[in-house]
Give the backbone structure.
Amino acid sequence: MNFRITKTSYLQFLKCPAEFWLDFHEPLFAAAPITLEREHLRQQGYAVEQLVRDMARFQSDGTALIEFQRTFQTAELAARSDIVVTDKATGDIDIYEIKAAGNLKEEHYDDVAFQMLVAERVGFRIRRAHLVTMNSEYVREGDLDVEQLFTVTDVTETVRPKLPVTEERIGKAFEYLASVPVPSLAEYCIDNKLDCRFIKRHFSDLPEYTVFDISYLQHDPRRQLLRQGIISILDVPDNFPLGPKQRQQVDIAKSREIIINTDEIARRIGEWEYPLHFLDYETLCYAIPLWDGVKPFQQMCFQYSLDTIARPGAELTHSEFLSHGDDWPPRALAEHLRDAFAGGIGTVFVWYEAFEKGRNEEMAAMFPDLADFFIDVNARTYDLMKIFSENLYVHPDFKGKTSIKKVLPVLCPDLDYTKLGIGDGLTATIKWFRAATWKSLTEAERQQIFIDLLEYCALDTFAMVRIFEFLVSLPRPQAGVASA
């Protein structure tokens, strides 16, 4: 059977040879579903490429031929280059590869090396090779400045020495296609682990709780276990070397013991001051800054949900904001949130403080008149996840994880994200982007997305309220929540 390796399949070979093999030999099984995330990234890449084409260097002055999506191919290889500039006088070419990324990665160099190799096999003489990436320091003010938005890096001297190893890898790829790989869990690909399509093809009945779930377990010890035939976390030997938290996770999985440090939990509860606020943001992380004051890939806040308990025994009150894209989302949200805290800040609960605090720091920098407010919020923020990440409350059904999606179903099984129209943060981001920017949606479709977003974000904060109430209800030494 004759095969032609494309640039995409070559890069797949470098990541996971088994999936690469599957794509050629069992393409119907191997076909990856077109997920919402995959489609969103594809469209983002296309939007970035369209803007790159507007750069001055790609406007022909008559001395060069500028081609977009130019394909080079031989009987065995094919590579499509985003932009090829041919000097009409010499015939030399420059290759430009566009990446919707904020920095250069090794895989980007491999990508360009494959293009160079194929183009040279066809007979072209390559003068220079470039990578075009996002300028992560660019801040949008008014119309996009494409000359500042992108960074063009000449990678010729970095990539050319990679051509011999690229040639060697291509040979190994063809050899691999001619072989029949032996399925082995121990040879899992680092990127996908058990989500590898080849693994799923041959290991369809794996335990629910595996050694892949052991927190922060390095690849070498994990592979050591797998080579011994140990897949379930319940089968990990008692003498297998693990860190203290990893050993605790394994022991709890076996014993089904629940560990509760009631004294420390009670001490922390005693430090929390009213009013108690439970805050969650939803953000858009997009390559192209769509509003003023935003950088490429900045997590721009477009929504918040806030639940408040003003004093002990008080009824829960709710505040929320959701931009529809027809305002300046971060500014409108910041002002609305400041007003929602008019009754006092007290303690602000979040889940994974690095995220919310990071957004507050960004908004403080964007809006100096609100900086004191966001600095105060950060100073009074408590990460509710720490109760679980610091092993003050450990449950075997958390499976070593401490995300709210893992903790909530165990402590509050009546709350269920799966019943919502939007059930996770990534979907929330993409759906909002579409509702706020796509002109092709009907008004009914847009409004349904906004309704689903409000329900999703509200559950994130109400989930923290319920977990807080669960912790307060635990039997503990006499302690109370202090009042400001």
User: Anything to note?
Assistant: The CA atoms of residues 265 and 471 lie 8 Å apart. The first strand starts at residue 5 and ends at 6. The two ends are 76 Å apart (CA to CA).
